[in-house]
Amino acid sequence: MRKAYTCVCLAMILLPATASAGAVESLLQQYQRQGAGDFNPIRGKKLWEARHMQSKLGKPVSCASCHTTDLTRPGQHLRTGKHIEPMSPAVNPSRLMDAKKVEKWFRRNCRWTWGRVCTPQEKGDLLMFIRQSNPGGKKK
Ligand code: HEC
User: Fold this and answer.
1) Which atom of ligand 1 sits closest to the CA of residue 82?
2) Is 105 within 8 Å of 118 (Cβ atoms)?
3) How confident is the model at residue 33, as a pLDDT?
4) CA-proximal residue: ligand 1, atom 31 (nearest)
5) Maximum alpha-carbon separation in the chain
6) How do residues 76-88 score in pLDDT, each as one tens digit?
């Protein structure tokens, strides 16, 4: 896995014009400096769909409860019913562009959904999963 990740990094350096990495690469590097290992989108997908008991709601919830399991589609806020734009950068180019925004929402959403902050490892796995999501991208 480390090899694959290094390749991604190299591709980003070699293809700056085509790669719209947004905030992802710098966040992944930051998470590794904080002790995370290699990142894996399949683990990210499992985390995304894993249900945890939400104590105030009294029901199990996951990231997909608001953002759905198909990230190329819009979501809906579980409590307020508000429309949420699709999470996939493939259909919503404004996603994962701003590291501060990503961190802010990780902090909020991990606390609310899981009852605790996400670890750097988990955040990296989730980012890999979100970044890779694309229309019809069921092959993973
Ligand atoms: C209760 C509903 C809800 C749940 C559950 C939820 N989110 Fe969110 N999430 C939101 C809202 C609302 C926003 C901010 C509005 C927007 O960006 O569309 C947001 C924004 C985000 C963003 C910002 C992305 C960007 O660059 O714009 C990320 C990343 C994110 N959520 C990840 C997660 C993860 C990971 C989980 C599970 C641990 C999760 N969310 C669970 C409602 C939710």
Assistant:
1) 12
2) no
3) 98
4) 105
5) 49
6) 999 999 999 999 9
The residue whose CA has the least distance to atom 38 of ligand 1 is 110
Per-residue pLDDT, 15: 46
As a whole number of angstroms, the distance between CA 1 and CA 39 comes to 8
Determine the average pLDDT of the residues in 57-62.
Answer: 96
Structure tokens, 43: 């683990």
Q: 49 CB contacts (<8 Å, ≥6 apart)?
A: 62, 63, 64, 69
Q: What's the mean pLDDT when you consider all of the chain?
A: 88
Measured in Å, residue 68 CA sits from the centre of ligand 1 at: 11
* CA 123 to each of CA 21, 23, 56, 83, 104: distance values in angstroms, whole numbers, following the listed order: 16, 13, 24, 24, 12
Other Cβ atoms closer than 10 A to 40: 17
State the CB neighbour count (10 A cutoff) for residue 117.
13
11-31 pLDDT, tens digit each: 555 544 334 558 999 999 999
Q: Amino acid letter at 78?
A: L
